[in-house]
Amino acid sequence: MKVLITAPMGRKHWDALSTEFPAVTFLSGAGPESDPLPDVEVMVTYGKDINEYLSRLPKLRWIQVLRAGIDGIALTELKDRSIRLTTVQGIHGIPMSEHVFGMILQFSRRFLDFRANQVQKTWDRSIKVEEIYEKTLGVVGVGSIGREIAKRGKAFGMRTIGINSRGTPVEGVEKVLPLGGLPELLADSDYVVVTLPLTPETRRLFGEPEFRMMKPTAYFINVARGEVVDEGALARALQEKWISGAGLDVFECEPLPSSSSLWELNNVMITPHLAALSPRYVERAIGVFRQNLLAYLGGKDLANEVDLSKGY
Ligand code: OXD
Predict the structure, then answer these.
(1) Does 19 lie in the same domain as 55?
(2) 292 lies in which domain range?
(3) What does the alpha-carbon distance between residue 271 and residue 274 come to, in Å, rounded to a whole number?
């Protein structure tokens, strides 16, 4: 069986895969762009190149993406060709929750202001610092990532509320609401953290009405996808102080264009879509693929298989 791996990864991972699966041939993505790869049954990728490879892989049966999001992948074509799709959902919780809490603690303890004062050698004790203890953390999307964020919120003594599609209870989250409960979560939360997948239902879920429902003292943190937000409405919410600030890792257009007004707002913290990154990312992602390859070869269920009709 042939597996095409287009995701860049170190030699040690290639060697480990070849040793563990001697009957499988692992190919790298090299070769002229138009060449068909007739015998490839499985593809391992970060996702961006799937659509361009599909026509070259007539026998493709399964794609393992080494990321959580599947937006931008031609799901209808996969469905029509009965190609299975799996993600590495589940490995993002640790780095993303640390990233989110870096942002939350920055907003609360004002480290960036102190750093700016440090550059000027200024000793200013008038900067107002806050606590997050007993504040409300609203996690919109309590899946594997949202749960880890809520867990850390609890460790800081925060009240946690969350949203998932049906309001199904989640361990460690005090109150879970269905998507229709968004106004309640927005009105109650001091920190709104978005970890939703991008689907037709969640596209531009956050617009002017939603930002106006938030407390003026609240912060909005998006580590999901830029397209779940109407970025123009968010910029106005921040400029006109409907909300206190935002921590943004994802944007409608990436890289964020230099013309975006978000760059200039001093109540915004921007990071370049890397909340999930970690020195352990590849090792964890390949770990999921290895388990799935064993299951695939043994005819068992694959972990994190996407329901191609639902899109998640
Ligand atoms: C992902 C991401 O989808 O990091 O994995 O955005």
Answers:
(1) yes
(2) 2-90+279-297
(3) 7
CA–CA separation, 66 and 77 (whole Å):
20
C-beta of 69 in contact with ligand 1 (< 6 A): yes
The alpha helices in 200-259, defined as continuous H runs, are 208-213, 231-239
pLDDT at 34: 67
Quick: pLDDT tens for 8-42: 999 999 999 999 999 999 999 766 676 788 899 99
Instruction: Give the CATH number, domain containing residue 100.
Output: 3.40.50.720
CA distance linking residue 71 with residue 84, whole number of Å: 15
**Contact assessment for residue 131 and residue 145, using Cβ atoms and an 8 Å cutoff:** no
Q: What pTM does this model have?
A: 0.94
Ligand 1, residues 50, 65, 89, 92: which to mutate, most atoms within 8 A of Cβ? 92
Domain match, 117 and 256 both: yes
Q: How many domains does the chain have?
A: 2
Give a yes or no: residue 306 inside a domain: no
Closest CA to 295 of 31, 99, 36, 62: 62
DSSP 242: S
58 and 196 housed in the same domain:
no
Average pLDDT over residues 210-229: 98
What pLDDT is stored for residue 31 in this prediction?
A: 64
Residue 311: inside a domain, yes or no?
no
**Candidate list 61, 84, 236, 273, residue with the active-site label:** 273
pLDDT band at residue 310 under the 50/70/90 scheme: confident
